Backbone:
């Protein structure tokens, strides 16, 4: 692989990153185009283990036309997104619930927790 | 007690036999009008339609005009019924609480040929009995209609022309007919008809019906139905017409119906305000293959734009909120077909009711009722209530009326359609009346949410919720219009 | 009923404006919200990405809204839900209804307009074809999926590569639908680059630039759409038509500020922004009526909405506190015009003497420009210029002008230009 171009997604600027394989560098890649350090980290991660934050909704027990928005509290491996979505399909939360409440710890072994994104009485 | 002239059968097969005095096929403006007029009499009447709502055919998509009547030839049925029908609208719209405004119409002339056409139209109109017509010169026309082209050389001004809510009228007629005892069956399509000794056996997709009289109001399919019964064939040529609908902010671009002179190239494009304050532009005319093709096409819409601007320059087309198309039933005989089939007593054709069909509808209904009377010899009148329960139009109430209404029924305090200011109360009413709404478009045609600027973007989830609640259904079962028009595919989880 | 300040809309703009006015000492504030809860459009924006500028965090829509809803409650600011403003007049009297109180009027000393915007429907772009079910604007689909909890289809095509369209591409895919393509009529995507990555590239959804939907097919439910490529004049290139089978069409073709109430009050609207014409304190053409958020002009980032709303609240508070003698006609008015390459500039005019210390101008360009200068001129004289590497129509830009620069002006017009 010579050069890979990727857009950084850490912040809305969206720097154009150029990533080259570099066996001599610590992480194995040389990154340029990033305006900040987070972009560098993102580039390395994208090459080794791309992760994403997942946001979705889950059912509320006893309530039909209303869903609870939820999120993972940190980024999870990109290839586990659909697996986690399948877990969410079966979930039902009970009210009341507060934003930030833990719903599932270490969901699908991703080291991320599923938390509520909204308070509903 | 069985009456003279009626024979009652009680034969039950699987699927059942039902006996009606009159079955009307097609619940458009003609079918619903006839049903309502016949419901004044002691007759067992069934109105049926193959669609999922009344007025889902041509009645749903037309220019919504009540013509003065100078256009159709004076010695034709079109001319006769138009002129006879025109003055009947004030009363019927008052009884049924349907919006109607006599705004008047102008036929614009741009050259000598057009001016001669105006004279011919005037003459024809006079022979037909049209009153309150006047030929204006270019300047006079400009004075009463400021935004028409400066190139106008003259105009035929007809004060009796008006604008109406056509599907609102058909829905109101159906509701009133049902309140007066008429049965309505939707999603019921006639598959075959057999003549019996004293009536007709009608096979539908929902079972068999027997009736003494069968009235054909089947619109673009009237020839198909006729050919199941009579050997006197006619052909209905389906003609599509496309339209632009513009936002209310430009609804007063013109205040009358603006026609162009008919030439051998066609009838011209109409620019007219609607009874709700929008502006409608169209239609063109195109013979189509498939009778229910109501797709719009960009080259046709472009053509309509160009031709319309001849009448009214600089139409603000950036205020278009939607485009749509309707199909008209053009009879190959060149005139309305309103008669009992010669070879089939009791089978009445009311076919080829293209423009000025809407304008003629009250007179056509009156005529058909007389045909039915002749067939029976005599029919007894019964208790008939011509009035429909008043429709509340919240946005039009005064401040005090609004307050009183909300205090009486709190659902009128809940705004569902923000663009047109329509409340939950109005929508619930539209659902629960006879011939009430069962679909999102049905609600739109009765109470108007979704007719405004955002075209339902805001109110769709709310209207669906109300339908689901009031009809005891799940949200996923709620349809947009026809039977296959599901909106949601299921729950997310 | 009387209030010092009525805020119309309880979304991010309305909430921040009310909080800001309270912080400036205004006592009687009422937020009027038509939905069943505060938060506005943020309630259905369950994805993250909000608050990066203000909070240095990537919050979801509901989490961002919560910060302000909590503060509104802590500050004891009144609000009414399921309540609808029917009309406002130029004397600042509002006609309002809800199920519980019926029809009532409120006299306000000042009003802040924060009604947000609506989506352009199919009719506004005139896609020909039949009219089946299965066609949704992105926001309506988002509401149904995220709040009511229903799927809108199984196979979708999305028209418009703005952020809402991109977000919905991801949302639909995660919930099990197949998104066949996102079509964008311009030669460049409209949304943030990060959304192209995490909404399209992540799921291998093709982005078809310079493409649009030219026909809709389907009798009762959508059966498919015909896509075609367009040239530089946005005209269809014959021969590029392609039929894509799908049961859902999502339209993300533009947002329009919702100013019907403003118009009925007689407030002057700018045909370039579709929002009220305002001065540097966000006051409209009617004294004491202010505007902020998407109702003023469509924003890209909610953080900017909040900042704009804070300002509107501040200025409304100042207005309320002034005596009627102090509310004299404002001083020298300078009008700002968008010139070459600029789609609109906000505010549309400035009262130089009333400026605090500097003037922050917001503008959008009408095309992508690279290596350009933004020039601010008056009567041919250059006031300020800044260099820009790249500017996009989909990204709001700003320039700050020193008050000093402006007081030296002897002309009444300022032009902002791209070179």
Residues:
């Amino acid at each position: 692989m010579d050069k890979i171009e990727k857009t950084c997604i850490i912040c809305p600027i969206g720097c154009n990153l150029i990533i080259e394989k570099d066996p001599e560098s610590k992480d194995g890649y040389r990154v340029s185009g990033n305006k900040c350090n987070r972009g560098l980290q993102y580039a390395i991660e994208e090459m080794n283990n791309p992760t994403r934050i997942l946001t979705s909704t889950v059912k509320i027990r006893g309530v039909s036309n209303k869903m609870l928005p939820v999120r993972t509290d940190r980024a999870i491996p990109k290839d586990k997104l659909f697996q986690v979505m399948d877990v969410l399909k079966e979930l039902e939360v009970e009210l009341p619930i507060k934003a930030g409440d833990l719903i599932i710890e270490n969901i699908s072994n991703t080291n991320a927790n599923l938390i509520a994104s909204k308070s509903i009485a | 007690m069985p009456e003279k002239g009626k024979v009652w059968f009680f034969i039950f097969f699987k699927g059942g036999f039902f006996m009606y005095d009159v079955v009307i096929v097609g619940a458009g403006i003609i079918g619903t009008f006839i049903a309502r007029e016949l419901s004044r009499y002691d007759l067992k009447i069934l109105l049926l339609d193959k669609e999922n709502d009344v007025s889902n055919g041509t009645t749903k998509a037309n220019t919504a005009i009540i013509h003065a009547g100078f256009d159709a030839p004076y010695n034709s049925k079109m001319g006769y019924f138009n002129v006879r029908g025109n003055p009947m609208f004030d009363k019927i719209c008052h009884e049924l609480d349907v919006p109607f405004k006599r705004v008047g119409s102008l036929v614009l002339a741009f050259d000598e040929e057009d001016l001669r056409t105006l004279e011919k139209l005037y003459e024809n109109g006079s022979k037909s009995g049209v009153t309150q017509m006047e030929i204006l010169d270019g300047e006079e026309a400009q004075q009463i209609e400021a935004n028409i082209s400066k190139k106008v050389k003259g105009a035929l001004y007809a004060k009796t022309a008006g604008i109406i809510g056509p599907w609102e009228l058909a829905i109101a007629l159906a509701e009133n007919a049902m309140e007066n005892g008429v049965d309505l069956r939707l999603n019921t399509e006639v598959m075959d008809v057999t003549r019996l000794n004293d009536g007709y056996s009608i096979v539908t997709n929902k079972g068999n019906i027997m009736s003494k009289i069968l009235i054909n109001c089947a619109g673009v399919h009237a020839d198909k139905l006729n050919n199941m019964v009579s050997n006197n064939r006619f052909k209905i040529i389906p003609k599509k017409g496309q339209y632009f609908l513009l936002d209310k902010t430009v609804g007063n671009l013109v205040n009358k119906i603006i026609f162009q002179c008919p030439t051998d190239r066609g009838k011209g494009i109409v620019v007219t305000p609607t009874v709700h304050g929008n502006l409608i532009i169209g239609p063109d005319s195109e013979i189509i293959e498939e009778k229910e093709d109501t797709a719009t096409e960009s080259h046709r819409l472009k053509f309509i734009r160009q031709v319309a601007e001849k009448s009214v320059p600089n139409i603000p087309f950036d205020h278009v909120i939607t485009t749509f198309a309707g199909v008209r039933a053009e009879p190959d005989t060149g005139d309305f077909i309103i008669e009992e089939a010669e070879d089939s007593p009791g089978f009445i054709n009311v076919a080829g009711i293209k423009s000025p069909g809407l304008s003629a509808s009250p007179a056509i209904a009156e005529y058909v009722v007389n045909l039915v009377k002749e067939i029976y010899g005599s029919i007894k009148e019964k208790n008939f209530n011509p009035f429909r329960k008043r429709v509340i139009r919240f946005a039009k109430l005064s401040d005090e009326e609004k307050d009183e209404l909300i205090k009486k029924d709190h659902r009128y305090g809940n705004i569902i359609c923000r663009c047109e200011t329509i409340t939950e109360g109005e929508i619930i009413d539209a659902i629960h009346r006879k011939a009430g709404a069962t679909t999102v478009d049905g609600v739109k045609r009765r109470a108007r949410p979704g007719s405004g600027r955002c075209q339902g973007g805001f109110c769709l989830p709310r209207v669906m919720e109300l339908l689901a609640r009031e009809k005891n259904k799940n949200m996923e079962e709620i349809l947009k219009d026809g039977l296959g028009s599901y909106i949601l595919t299921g729950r997310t989880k | 009923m009387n209030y010092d300040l009525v805020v119309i809309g309880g979304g991010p703009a309305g909430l921040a404006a009310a909080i800001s006015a309270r912080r400036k000492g205004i006592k009687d504030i009422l937020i009027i919200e038509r939905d069943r809860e505060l938060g506005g459009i943020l309630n259905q924006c369950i994805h993250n990405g909000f608050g990066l500028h203000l909070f240095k965090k990537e919050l979801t829509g509901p989490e961002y809204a919560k910060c302000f809803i909590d503060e509104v409650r802590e500050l004891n600011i009144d609000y009414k839900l399921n309540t609808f403003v029917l009309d406002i007049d130029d004397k600042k009297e509002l006609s309002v209804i809800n199920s519980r109180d019926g029809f009532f009027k409120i006299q306000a000393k000042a009003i802040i307009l924060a009604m947000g915007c609506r989506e352009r429907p199919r009719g506004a772009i005139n896609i020909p074809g039949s009219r089946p079910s299965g066609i949704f604007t992105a926001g309506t689909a988002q509401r149904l999926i995220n709040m009511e909890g229903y799927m809108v289809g199984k196979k979708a095509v999305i028209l418009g590569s703005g952020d809402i369209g991109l977000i919905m591409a991801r949302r639909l895919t995660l919930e099990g639908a197949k998104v066949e393509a996102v079509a964008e009529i311009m030669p460049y995507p409209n949304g943030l680059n990060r959304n192209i990555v995490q909404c399209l590239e992540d799921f291998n959804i093709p982005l078809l630039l310079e493409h649009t939907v030219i026909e809709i097919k389907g009798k009762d439910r959508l059966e498919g759409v015909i896509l075609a490529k367009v040239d530089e004049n946005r005209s269809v290139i014959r021969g590029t038509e392609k039929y894509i089978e799908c049961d859902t069409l999502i339209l993300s073709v533009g947002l329009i500020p919702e100013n019907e109430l403003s118009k009925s009050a007689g407030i002057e609207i700018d045909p370039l922004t579709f929002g009220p014409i305002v001065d540097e304190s966000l006051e409209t053409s009617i004294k004491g009526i202010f505007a902020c958020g998407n109702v003023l002009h469509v924003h890209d980032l909610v953080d900017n909405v909040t900042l704009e709303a804070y300002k509107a609240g501040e200025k409304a508070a100042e207005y309320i506190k002034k005596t009627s003698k102090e509310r004299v006609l404002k001083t020298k008015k300078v009008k700002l015009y968008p010139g070459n390459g600029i789609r609109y500039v906000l505010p549309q005019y400035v009262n130089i003497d009333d400026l605090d210390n500097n003037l922050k101008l917001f503008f959008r360009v009408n095309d992508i420009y690279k290596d350009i200068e933004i020039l601010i001129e008056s009567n041919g004289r250059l006031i300020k210029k800044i260099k820009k590497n790249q500017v996009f129509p989909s990204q709001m830009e700003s320039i700050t002008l020193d008050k000093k620069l402006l007081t030296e002006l002897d002309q009444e017009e300022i032009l902002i230009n791209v070179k």
Chain A has two domains: 3-48, 55-116. The domain at 55-116 of chain A is CATH 3.10.530.10 (CPE0013-like fold). The beta strands of chain A are 3-7, 16-21, 29-32, 51-52, 55-60, 63-72, 76-77, 92-93, 102-104, 114-116.
